[in-house]
Amino acid sequence: MVSINPESKSRAVNREVLSELIKLHGKTSLGGKLPAYDGRKSLYTAGSLPFESEEFSVTLVDPEKKDKEKAEREYKITILIAGRTDLYHLQQFLKGRQRDMPQETIQVLDVVLRESPSWNYVTVSRSFFSTTFGHRGDIGEGLECWRGYYQSLCPTQMGLSLNIDISATSFFKPVTVVQFVLEFLNLRDASRPLTDRDRVKIKKALRGVRVETNHQEDQIRRYKITGITPVPMSQLTFPVDERGTRMSVVQYFMQRYKYNLQYTSWPCLQSGSDARPVYLPMEACKIVEGQRYSKKLNDKQVTNILRATCQRPQQREQSIREMVLHNKYAEDKFAQEFGINVCSDLVSVPARVLPPPMLRYHDSGKEKTCVPSVGQWNMINKVGRPPSIEKAFTRFGVPALKNIPTIIFGADVTPPPPGEDSASSVAAVVASMDWPEIAKYRGLVSAQPHRQEIIEDLFSVTKDPQRGNVNGGMIRELLIAFRRKTGRRPERILFYRDGASEGQFSHVLLHEMDAIRKACASLEEGYMPPVTFVVVQKRHHTRLCPEVHGRRDMTDKSGNILPGTVVDLMICHPTEFDFYLCSHAGIQGTSRPTHYHVLYDENHFTADALQSLTNNLCYTYARCTRVVSVVPPAYYAHLAAFCVRYYVEGDRSNGGSTPGSSGQAAIAREGPVEVRQLPKIKDNVKDVMFYC
């Protein structure tokens, strides 16, 4: 374990401190070991250190500061032995002889393989970006797209596997702040004052961004933006001496630097604290290169970034191969230090293609059928009136669901957009209401604390002065609605849960299964239908490409694998029940399969049965005559949460409120934010799939 004093929140500064330690003392002070460091508290070595605890001292010099005394800063580094990792448990886990995953051991090896790129590239979560990886594309409004790669070490049935994929994300363009503002606000005339709304937008976009000044030829200083002044620069004054004599920023720059400021009708950037602010004219500042734009992109920017990075499967596979070769894992000194060998070849895995279901529809009271072709079907001229796709359903209910009343839930939590620190998360749950067809869903939504992943309102108990304890919650309400619609109580539950990451699996399962159990028990004593709990993951970096590109019996028109392709061997979890299903046909780029991870299964589905059921469900999506990539109940839950958030916040382009802008974000940082409850959905709307 490593502690650095004074403490820094910057991984880059921490790495620089540790690098200086190694330069001063060499590896001798660490017993000849080359350490791998995560930039925070953890440092790992291949073998024991010659001490249990040791303190070191280093001095860093800031080259941007003229004054030598102010430029030098001393750091105290304490290294304490916190534990030793045993690879034996990892070996037993990978062989299926131990169920508990040794997460810490895997994390150690992951940090080792991330050490070299962490020094050379811009790190964003598990991805690394650099302008050396390809052309940086302008995506509009002061932003550009950088290319990079994603890397993660994960346990699979083959052993430890390194997941590599091509990545891209948005960065601030390294331009003057004036140019950024002009592009960001789509302005042509910089002489016109900014409106209050424009000022709020700029404040929100630039908060936390680092800039460097250019008004002093012999000195470049860097600052972090904390805000925007409320008044234009022409009206902005500050005290210049102890007597309180005030001077305008415009006058100060002319007298001190002989710098004639031009954009005096615009506000200044503000750095430092409110008590001791530093005012920076926008025209004297340039945005430091390599800063990611972490807030929400608009539709045009998303389109531009997709256009710049879209690759067909053959191109993407080649790009991944080139990236692996570029990384030169065999020459990585940290991998060598820890005895890690990385194979540079892609893995060939066995796959199956599930057949499409037979679709039924009604025409003038008569039941007809059609068979999808490569993930789509055509209803033109097949019905006497415009179809209500909602009534189209498959025969997957025979025999999987027909004999036992089954309710299928979809659940998701949608966090607020990046940067909206005061907004609540929105949880949504939908449930099928038309067993055995399984095509119509009823949806409910609930607000919950900011970025909380566990769904709070699945089951609730409130106290009523007259009635005492009153049971409620979304699961209970949907179970009641199912019985009212079908005349049967559900005897089997299938719960598709979207939005949970691997680190949240046990937490989500524990709390939400408990809520499902309590909701059932509240309806009838002893009522405990078997539950299958499946996590649905779309945001991952596993890509499946055809073994032979261009073969029409193995690919669709886009060159992607065929719809219905499922993989449940080699790249899946060593001991748990999971599979990758690419249910949809490709349109452009490389198809992303959906990862289904079965956390709990009291219905004892075979792999084939659950995979086929999930694939068939993907043909029942109400919006289009195509098979979709995510199982519809999970898809509907995501849409419901998104729609409700949009309804509540209003159309921002028409002046709707923007949570998190202006003073709300400051309040959010000071303490917990009260959850703003959502308006109740009317009963007649609940029965309509309004999110479609």
* Relevant CATH superfamily of the domain at 352-652: Ribonuclease H-like superfamily/Ribonuclease H
CATH fold-level topology of the domain at 352-652: Nucleotidyltransferase, domain 5
Largest sheet: 9 strands, mixed
Number of DSSP-assigned strands = 31
What is the radius of gyration?
29 Å
The CATH architecture of the domain at 352-652 comes to 2-Layer Sandwich
Distance between the termini: 51 Å
Q: How would you name the oligomeric state of the polypeptide chains in this document?
A: single chain
Stretches where pLDDT falls below 50 for ≥5 residues? 389-393, 651-671
For the record, what CATH class of the domain at 352-652 applies?
Answer: Alpha Beta
Strand residues, percent:
25-35%
Averaged pLDDT: 87
User: Which percent bin holds the helix content?
Assistant: 25-40%
Which structural class best describes the helix and strand composition?
A: alpha+beta
Strands of the largest sheet, in order across it? 18-29-30-31-28-27-22-23-24
Q: Which word captures the global form?
A: globular
Domain Piwi: 406-649
GO molecular function: RNA binding
Protein name: Protein argonaute MEL1
Family: Belongs to the argonaute family. Ago subfamily.
Structure characterization notes:
By secondary structure, this protein is an alpha+beta fold. Among the domains are: 177-287, paz domain; 352-652, Ribonuclease H-like superfamily/Ribonuclease H (Nucleotidyltransferase, domain 5). Helix content is 26%, strand content 26%. It is built from 17 helices and 31 strands. The strands form eight sheets. A nine-stranded mixed sheet has the order 18-29-30-31-28-27-22-23-24, sandwiched between helices. Strands 6, 7, 8, 9 and 10 form a five-stranded antiparallel sheet that branches. A five-stranded antiparallel sheet has the order 16-15-12-11-17, covered by helices on one side. Helix 12 (474-486) crosses helix 13. InterPro entries: ArgoL1, ArgoL2, Argonaute_N, PAZ_dom, PAZ_dom_sf, Piwi, RNaseH-like_sf, RNaseH_sf. Residues 176-289 form the PAZ domain. GO terms for molecular function: RNA binding. Keywords: RNA-mediated gene silencing. This is Protein argonaute MEL1.
